[in-house]
Amino acid sequence: MDQIAEILVTFCLVIAGIFGLVGSFGLLKLRDTMQRLHAPTKATTLGVGGVLVASMIYFYFIEGSLSFHELLITLFLFLTAPVSANFIAKTLLIEKKGKIALPETDGKKGWATNDSPPNVADSIQG
Amino acid sequence: MLKRLIPHPLLSISLVLVWLMLVNHYSLGNLILGAILGVLVPALTGPYWPNQARVRRPLKVIEYILVVLWDIVVANVQVAMIILFKRNADLKTCWVVVPMELTSPEAITVLAGTITMTPGTVSAMLSADASEILVHCLHTDDPEGTRDDIKNRYERRLKEIFQ
């Protein structure tokens, strides 16, 4: 039983290491900031996730105790990764305003960094 | 009275659960401490979150989480393949505009987060009236297909959950 658990833990760690490495390599290889943003938000999620799964298997089968901390790390990661990615993207778009070609919106209003939000009084009147 | 004390019941319950998982040991004292947090934190953050979030179909949430988790695994492999085996010159990076039918801020937040976590897409910005979302694709041959994927796979499910 321990043998199987150890193999599983090793497998998860190796997978995690590969994805972590690829994510970091992506940072070097891709060309502009928006492209580079893709590497850490995705490839690394599975990298961290693999380590967490390995840790859960280890504590459950070998130490014999169930640990919820890994689930919490996953939860916090999923809450913070998109928010920080969005912050970076938005900062970039404000910084490089006019230099990055954005597609037009189909609606009445432009993108949030270029246009003011609709007036609340207007929307009440219809 | 109860509504003023606990403006967001779901937030309070999840705070208690997160606290219990954080100490990783169940006892009455921890439960009470968690309950105090569950009342205090929503009260302190209340001014920033005036509206009540409504989850109409709790069971659909589980389906949504499973779909997204699976997509995250697929996304990781796809992005890793793109990084490793595609030459930079072959990358077809583009912006995609996704019109949204979702209106509640909570649903839009979840959708934007999901887009960032899944296949080769990062959500960058909303339009000023929050009717469209700007998505950056790392590599796609078919921008319309990507847009329809996001609408059918995630937005449809979120609409069932929140509206």
Question: How does this model look, in words?
Answer:
The complex is a heterodimer of chains A (126) and B (163). The mean pLDDT of chain A is 79. Chain A is an all-alpha fold and 126 residues long. Chain A is elongated and about 60 Å long. Helix content of chain A is 73%, strand content 0%. In chain A, helix 1 packs antiparallel against helix 2 and helix 2 packs antiparallel against helix 3. Chain B is mostly helical and 163 residues long. Chain B has two domains: 2-48, no CATH class; 58-162, no CATH class. In chain B, a hairpin with a 5-residue loop joins strand 2 and strand 3. The mean pLDDT of chain B is 81. The interface between A and B is large, with 52 and 39 residues.
Q: Over the alpha carbons, how many angstroms does the gyration radius of chain A reach?
A: 22 Å
Q: Average pLDDT across residues of chain B?
A: 81
Write the H/E string of chain B, N to C: HHHHEHEEH
Low-confidence stretches of chain A: none
Strand order of the largest sheet of chain B: 1-3-2
